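Hi everyone,

Forwarding the result from last night's run.
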Amino acid sequence: MSAVLEKVAVNDEGYLLNPDDWTPEIAEAFAKEMGIELTDRHWEIINFVRNYYKEKGQSPTLRQISTGAGVPTKELFKLFPKGPAKKVARIAGVPKPEGCI
């Protein structure tokens, strides 16, 4: 675990307990753990997810991310392989979307 992540509290699935603790450095550390190198396109989606959470008080589903951020589902799976809604939520520092196993 990186030094950045050692300073924040996470639940047993690795999601931040307090979304206000999030920083871009934490996002980079979570992404690195997952083998994802963040590009500008990743950041567009991460920022969309953070703003959605701030406005609605819940994490967006895969469909809401695809529609709201204007990113085709296929691209989301390419950017965040094997569970994009969960991965982007974790990287964005928000809770796991409801309905995700």
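Residues 8 and 39 are 24 Å apart (CA to CA).

Cheers,
N.
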